[in-house]
Structures are given as C-alpha cells and as structure tokens.
Amino acid sequence: MVTLAIQTRLSGVVDLSDPAEAKVVGTNAQELTGDRAGYRERGSAASVTGPVGKAPTQESGEQLFALCPYVQGIVTLSALVPYCRILVVFPQRLRPGADYVRYKMTDDSGHSKTIQIP
C-alpha cells in the first residue's frame, strides 16, 4: 500500500461516506467496509465454501458506473483504516481538459515525475 497526495478535478462524485447519500443507493458502512477479499478467496478452502463471487461493494460500484454516466468517482469509507475515507475514480469518465487526477511519484532511479490522468 502506498499513500499519495493527489490533486483532482472531478465534476460528478457520489459521497457514500455520507449516511444520507449511502441510504439513497441502499448501502451502509458495514457493506462498504465488509469482507471483500473473502468473496474472492473462499471456495478454494475446503472448510469454507461460501459466500463467493463478487462482493457487494464491487456490485454497487458496477451499478453506479452502469446506471449513472455522470459519476466520475465515489468517496467511501476505508475498510483498512476505519477513520479515513477513500476516493475511487472511474478514469474512463474523465473528460480531457476538464477533469483530472494528478499525483507525483519517485521512480526506482530516484527521479520525481508527475502523473496525470487523462
């Protein structure tokens, strides 16, 4: 895991960390921070066979993407750090020249570079 300082310009963000917005899409903190990894990994273990498949959080994100073409990102609760929020961005929804995600990183040779999407 890497923590990056990012700059964004997004025009359509759903804030699922806000209980009122989460209620509109029919989700809650438990569903947003639940056992995502287990859905992928179960089934291969002989003693625990379910539930498997896509986690509810993955299905919610896919539905927002499919049904709301203006949504460019989702603010949600962090499952790893309970007192933080995370931003999920749909990069294919960013309009060149209008929206962006920008961050700086240092490569293996020690050179700093700026990455911008799109």
Summarize it.
This protein has 118 residues and is an alpha+beta fold. It has helices spanning 19-24, 29-33, 36-41, 56-67; strands at 6-9, 13-15, 73-77, 85-89, 100-106, 112-117.
Name its key features.
about 25% helix, alpha+beta, 3-stranded mixed sheet, about 120 residues
Give a description of the structure.
This protein is an alpha+beta fold. The chain has one domain. The chain has four helices and six strands. It has helices at 19-24, 29-33, 36-41, 56-67, and strands at residues 6-9, 13-15, 73-77, 85-89, 100-106, 112-117. The protein has a three-stranded antiparallel sheet with strand order 1-5-6, with no helix packed on it. A three-stranded mixed sheet has the order 2-3-4. Strand 3 (73-77) and strand 4 form a beta hairpin. The longest helix is centred in the middle third of the chain and has 12 residues, at 56-67. The mean pLDDT is 85.
